[in-house]
What does this fold into?
Amino acid sequence: MTTITDAQQLVAQAREQFATCGTAAELEDAKARFLGKAGAITTLLKDLAALSPEAKRQQGGAINQAKQAIEQALQARRDELAEARLQARLAEEAIDVSLDGRGQRRGGLHPVVRSWMRIEAIFRSMGFEVAEGPEIEDDWTNFTALNSPQDHPARSMQDTFYVDIDDARGQPLLLRTHTSPMQVRHARAHVQRHQGAADMPDIRVIAPGRTYRVDSDATHSPMFHQFEGLWIGHAVSMADLKGTYTAFLHAFFEREDIELRFRPSYFPFTEPSAEIDMRFDSGPLQGRWLEISGAGQVHPTVVRNFGLDPEQFMGFAFGSGIERLTMLRYGIGDLRQFYGSDLRFLEQFHAA
Ligand code: PHE
It folds into this structure.
């Protein structure tokens, strides 16, 4: 009866050994020790050959039971290991839904764009249209129509980026040096639109946008922003310019203690021409005159180029720098900060 006892002991041994196997490979090794070709169970079965038929039946049955028990134990341990592997993977790949998300960094509007939008809103509230036009402009619209003919010395007032192609009429193209060509584009379109009407409604428009000059230092950038203002009617004067611009500044800076000064100047497209200076009556910039805009009464030659009779129509124009106004509003010292892409600078305006 030794074999029967042996068989029962083998089951206990197998269970013990299977339990210590931590991996599928270890378990397969252990399985071989019991059920493999040279395994303990196989050896017992071979030994049966020497027994009598009676003993064979008895002991054979016991060995087979043991074999089944070991196979069951093996399968049970396999299942345990597979379950453990699954749990380990689940734990490893678990997503902690209670953690805060990494989130998207929130962007914000550039301070120059903020000013641009403010300027549009303020002038719209005063009855102005808003127009935009091309940054690549033709020579006639940027200069000639604005009373700066070819070879006119005033052209060298603005150092121009020329584009290496000419337009269909063979005139040079350039990056507009100011928003003033929008006076011409908008006025001519307006005149055309109202052709044949008994009377033409006033032209009252601002044209904000990017402008370009060969220039770069703390107060000049090769790309910068201006907004052009134009109001043309039958009796629109410099007094209207002063009233309009004063109202704009009060709204833009959200304060009333601002003085304006018109300083005589020269532009080919206005006569008389002025620089508009302003000063705050309080705060860190108190009492300092700051130049913020060119302006003037639109020159008769330019009114004619609009397609209008300068005996009938008159008005004013101005062109102001958006960067300059933004620097004054937020107290920014160096223009180059606008274009350095430094988030420490830009993020200060996200909630402004
Ligand atoms: N275009 C002028 C400049 O860029 C400004 C200006 C606009 C002056 C309109 C008078 C009238 O310097």
